[in-house]
Amino acid sequence: MKITKFDNLTTDELLQVAYSTVKDDDELTIALLVRLADTTDELDQYKVDYENEVADAMVQIEKQFAKKAGG
Fold first, then answer.
1. How far is Cα of residue 54 from the mean position of the Cα atoms in its chain?
2. pLDDT digit string, tens, across residues 39-48
């Protein structure tokens, strides 16, 4: 369901549009945009870390399975 004309934008694109339209004296909006950008970066890093942990766990499981199958 489309709510606004911005629904099809990525988070980064949406932040860019918001940054370009906000006034310099609108400190609250600027603070919210910065916080959203920081939160988005943290979430992206969490996703990468999680995917790496899952991949490492899978390797360990495969090693244990191979060890049990061979021994």
1. 17
2. 999 999 999 9
- Write out 2-64 in H/E/C secondary structure: CCCCCCCCCHHHHHHHHHHHCCCCCHHHHHHHHHHHHHHHHHHHHHHHHHHHHHHHHHHHHHH
pTM, two decimals, is: 0.68
Residues listed for the chain: 71
Continuous segment of H or E residues that includes residue 71: none
Residue 30 contacts residue 22 (beta carbons within 8 Å): yes
Q: What are the residue ranges in the chain where pLDDT is below 50?
A: none
3-class secondary-structure state, position 66: helix
The two three-digit tokens of residue 52, written as one number: 């790496």
